[in-house]
Amino acid sequence: MPAVFLRLQSAREQVALPYSSLIKLELKNDATAVELSFVTHRVVITGKNLTEIYRAVAEAEARLVAVLNSDFPAEARGLAPNLSVSEIRIDPLEPEERRKR
């Protein structure tokens, strides 16, 4: 069953945004950044080997994306090998930007 919300957790904040407000998803060619455009927010996830995160979000399977302690390898967390999320930036859009969407 597809997820209803995508939870994002950084060192500074936690936000849950509804998949229904996701309007665009991009993956950099080198798989070091994923950009998510929601109606009310812009989210940039940076790291390494983020293709699996892109795929999971595109299929509404991802429930949580978080910056995790590097002491635990991705395999131990049930993630793709070498996947690493180093930062999640969550920026609310200004009212003028929202109207453009």
If you had to describe this structure to a student in words, what would you say it looks like?
The protein is mainly beta and 101 residues long. The chain has one domain (5-100). Helix content is 14%, strand content 42%. A four-stranded antiparallel β-sheet has the order 3-4-5-7, with helices on one face. The chain has a three-stranded mixed β-sheet with strand order 2-1-6, with no helix packed on it. Strand 1 and strand 2 (14-18) form a beta hairpin. The longest helix is centred in the middle third of the chain and has 8 residues, at 51-58.
Main attributes of the structure:
101 residues; mainly beta; 3-stranded mixed β-sheet
Compute the number of helices.
Answer: 2
- Kindly state the percentage of residues in helix: 10-25%
Distance between the termini: 28 Å
Strand order within the widest beta sheet = 3-4-5-7
Principal-axes geometry comes out as globular
Rg (CA only)? 13 Å
Average of the residue pLDDT scores: 87
Order of helices and strands: EEEEEHEEH
What number of structural domains do the residues give? 1
- Label the structural class: mainly beta
